Amino acid sequence: MTDATIGSLRVNGATLHYEVRGYGPLLLLIPGGTGGAASFDGVADDLAAEYTVATYDPRGMSRSTLDDPEAEQHVAEHADDAFRILELLSPGEPARVFGASSGAITTLHLLTAHPERVERAVAHEPPVVEVLPDAAEHRALLARVQQTLHTQGLMPAMAVFAAGLKEGGAPTEPKAQLQLPPRAAARAEQTMADLPYFVGRIVPSFMSYAPDIHRLETLSDRLVLACGQDSRGELPYRPAAALAERLGMELQQYPGGHTGLTTHPAEFGALLRAAFRS
């Protein structure tokens, strides 16, 4: 890993941890889930050969602290955080932006709220379930997840959530524990530490977000919607496919599934570079 310049940025109600590496036009990478800036470790160095690559821990995750740990979370505020980073690192200049999962929802809102600051945006599997014809079923899923979280705890809630994300809602078998290298083990530990906040605060807010379709239609020339080749039919794939159809654009296929960024970093990074050059 190339050494990154580390910084912190005060925003409304939080202090953001961010990292910058490389030279060239700014490319902001917005993580999803509980990954934080570390989720881009596999691609950041390669992208930094062409871009000034910036990423960060979203507010409340990992090293980005909230003034009020109990504060409700809102997509618009997370998108404003991304905007503040753009203003800091690329004042007055449009930037390229990539977001994954919940970070892709942040990316969609950033594009619609501040189109003058986004030259091109790639959103990978944003779970905007409100665009689906069966959105009511997914609202019910989110309600079950929250009820299970409050009555039975984190891991039962995660099981309900994971089953709902799979095609047909089939439960998944627990994976065997592997001996991880120290860096990966530290990331896994941080992921577990962030899960209660993610499931309790981020999931219900972000998955109830309805994108501004009409606004996105006017900006579709600078938006790329992408999905994992292996996640066809699963919940994170379906909303992106539906949104692409609504906007009349081709859905780009990326390697792997919802976490293809981690499982296929080289191929994923190559497709990202191509998307930002086109």
TrEMBL record:
Domain AB hydrolase-1 residues, every copy: 25-136
InterPro entries attached to this UniProt entry: AB_hydrolase, AB_hydrolase_1, AB_hydrolase_fold
Gene Ontology MF annotations: triacylglycerol lipase activity
Pfam families found in the cross-reference section: Abhydrolase_1
GO BP annotation list: glycerolipid catabolic process
Protein name: Pimeloyl-ACP methyl ester carboxylesterase
Organism phylogeny: Bacteria, Bacillati, Actinomycetota, Actinomycetes, Kitasatosporales
